[in-house]
Design brief:
transmembrane helix, elongated, mainly alpha, 4 helices
Length: 169
């Protein structure tokens, strides 16, 4: 199971990199064609926008896994080891619960868009499709924060030394 997850994590990170390269390449071609040939495609802007949203949510999941999100940890320097775990546990639990609420409402919105049947202006795909990353990846990020919560609960209960998880790969 651990090998499968590691492979999935690698694919996530590769997807982000290749998607950014693809957006940059297509945007460069679009600019070249617009200013040299006078041809512009509307779908490029729309597709780039939706890809950036997808990259943002996939990247947020990666950041949650590595503990790379912005956090205020000045208080952690001044509390005993055991309470560091308690504070991180509470912060991760609040993040998990917040993301569960966002995920719930995202799926309600996706279902409404699916039922309504609208399509995107240029690409002509169903409007709920660009919203799917919001529903899927808020769930993934919530799971990542919940895993961090469990790790810090164990650290608190067992009184293990606190290790900062930021930037750990």
């Amino acid at each position: 199971m651990k090998k499968l997850l590691q492979k999935l994590y690698t694919y996530e990170e590769l997807f982000i990199g290749y998607a950014l390269v693809l957006i940059a390449t297509v945007a460069t071609i679009q600019v070249f064609m617009r200013y040299t040939l006078g041809i512009a495609y509307d779908w490029v802007d729309e597709c780039s926008r939706y890809m950036c949203i997808l990259i943002t949510f996939v990247g947020a999941g990666v950041c949650a896994r590595y503990g790379s999100h912005f956090c205020m940890d000045a208080l952690l320097q001044y509390v005993p080891n055991r309470f560091k775990h308690l504070l991180k546990m509470l912060a991760n639990l609040v993040s998990t619960l917040t993301l569960v609420v966002v995920c719930y409402y995202a799926w309600i919105q996706i279902e409404k868009l699916h039922r309504f049947g609208a399509t995107t202006p240029s690409l002509g795909i169903p409007m709920y499709v660009p919203y799917l990353p919001l529903g899927i990846f808020t769930a993934v990020i919530a799971i990542q924060f919940f895993v961090k919560t469990v790790i810090h609960v164990n650290g608190f209960v067992q009184n293990t030394p606190y290790q900062n998880d930021q930037g750990v790969h």
